[in-house]
Write a structure and sequence with these properties.
Layout: H1 12-48, H2 53-57, H3 69-78, H4 85-116, H5 122-131, H6 141-150, H7 157-161, H8 168-179, H9 183-191, H10 196-207, H11 209-224, H12 228-233, H13 242-249, H14 259-279, H15 281-289
Helix pairs in contact: 1-14, 3-14, 4-8, 4-11, 11-15, 13-14
């Protein structure tokens, strides 16, 4: 007499692992596809910057880099179309760093004053700062231009930077972060004899490091991509930014565009923001997702 064999039981853990593995592969495949879709136009721009003009205008366009890399990039950096690209990159770099650093410094100090000092009308001043979020540069650009022209800041780095360094958004974010700092820290610093600026510099600034890094990346790209304001206050070609330069490279009328140089300039214009994002990637991510904010 044979005993009936028990029916094999399915392992639920193995099924979960199998489903999870399938989900991981599927998510990675979708992510790789998205990266390829985003990267393909950039690759075409890079290829176009390494070939000759007839190869670009004669279809089909090559998909592999050509042998004109050094020639086209040297022409862009040293000659350009109106102004050497190297000069425009320098102008954009100074402007972007000045705007980012200026916004962070002013926002840190204003948020520190709003949170840790008592003075009449503190809430009113904060809401007046916050209301400026509804007034973009385009709305106040005429009076701002008149003020900058009156101070003689046209065609200068100060004219490019100073009107754009006030930031209600950064002030609000730093205020919200400072309000999460325990009051015991300020009390302990006061007991130890630390002055307000000492407390600000030795305690609040190190605690705000990730927030500062995240805002620096965002504000640097904001300053780098500025077009309308530099277009208005710069009449000297030597003060052109890289965004203005790319726009001016496109021909008007029956002129022929020098597409290899334009594409080389576009690739060069992407390098500084990419370097900033990559170099500050860890701090940038922590500043955005840190649960202690």
């Amino acid at each position: 007499m044979t005993l009936p064999t028990s029916k094999p039981q399915k392992n639920p853990v193995a099924g979960m692992v199998e489903k999870r593995g399938l989900g991981i592969w599927l998510s990675h495949a979708i992510m790789v596809l998205g990266v390829l879709i985003v990267f393909f136009p950039i690759w075409l721009a890079f290829v176009a910057s390494t070939v000759t003009q007839p190869e670009i205008v004669s279809p089909p366009m090559p998909l592999l880099p050509g042998d004109q890399f050094f020639i086209n990039y040297k022409k862009a950096l040293l000659a350009g179309v109106n102004v050497p690209v190297g000069t425009m990159l320098t102008n954009s770099l100074v402007m972007a760093i000045g705007i980012a650093v200026g916004k962070i410094i002013i926002s840190l100090l204003s948020a520190f004053a709003i949170v840790y000092f008592r003075f009449p009308g503190k809430k009113i001043f904060f809401w007046l700062i916050f209301i400026t979020l509804m007034l973009p540069v385009e709305v106040r650009i005429v009076p701002t231009y008149e003020i900058i022209a009156g101070f003689g800041m046209l065609n200068s780095y100060s004219g490019l930077i100073f009107p754009l360094i006030a930031s209600a958004t950064a002030t609000f974010l730093f205020r919200q972060f400072f309000m999460t700092v325990p009051d015991e820290l300020a009390e302990a610093a006061r007991v130890d004899g630390a002055k307000p600026l000492r407390f600000f510099w030795d305690i609040l600034i190190p605690m705000s490091r990730t927030n500062i890094a995240a805002l620096f990346v965002i504000l640097f790209i904001y300053g780098w991509n500025q077009y309308l304001w530099p277009l208005l206050i710069t009449t000297d070609p030597e003060m052109n930014t890289i965004v203005m330069g790319i726009k001016q490279m496109f021909p008007s009328g029956d002129d022929v565009a020098d597409w290899p140089v334009i594409m080389a300039t576009s690739i060069l214009a992407m390098i500084p923001p990419v370097i900033v994002v990559i170099s500050m990637q860890k701090l940038f991510i922590r500043g955005l997702v840190d649960s202690e904010k």
